[in-house]
Write a structure and sequence with these properties.
The chain has a single domain (5-136), classed as 2-Layer Sandwich (STM4215-like), CATH 3.30.2000.30. Helix content is 31%, strand content 30%. It has 3 helices and 6 strands. A hairpin with a 3-residue loop joins strand 5 and strand 6 (126-136).
């Protein structure tokens, strides 16, 4: 499938829909799983998940045409550090772990590297775990 902005948007929407369909398993309301916008903060307080999809470099064939579309999926799972940061760390990690299982069980073509889930940010008021995967249409 050749890259088009329409196919990219459709794949991003499909990933979000897969996560929203199992939002209860992940530990969020479906409305709290949203497409992320680079450089913008979401208009909500934690807990929530931001989903980003970026086109990545694909191997080229002899004519210089990409062999396959490959996208980097990055999801940020944000939990409020109330009453404690320790509880927020556990909540954010659990959301990311459940999302990994939801994506792995889906019909999407998803693959994960060995460190798919990492602690991204710990602040006084919130904690973020990052889930990364590769998705092909």
């Amino acid at each position: 499938m050749a890259y088009t902005s329409g196919s990219y948007k459709a794949l991003w929407d499909q990933v979000i829909q897969v996560l929203r369909n199992d939002a209860a398993t992940i530990g969020l309301d479906a409305a709290r799983i949203v497409a992320g916008e680079f450089g913008k903060n979401p208009p909500m307080r934690p807990p929530y998940a931001l989903v980003f999809l970026e086109a990545t470099t694909s191997p080229l064939d002899a004519r210089g045409v990409p062999i396959d579309d490959d996208y980097l999926l990055t999801c940020f799972f944000v939990a409020e550090a109330r009453p404690t940061q320790q509880e927020a760390i556990a909540k954010a990690y659990d959301m990311a772990r459940q999302a990994l299982e939801v994506l792995a069980a889906s019909t999407l073509s998803v693959w994960f590297e060995s460190r798919a889930i990492v602690l991204d940010t710990v602040e006084a008021d919130w904690v973020v775990y990052r889930l990364e995967a590769h998705v092909t249409p």
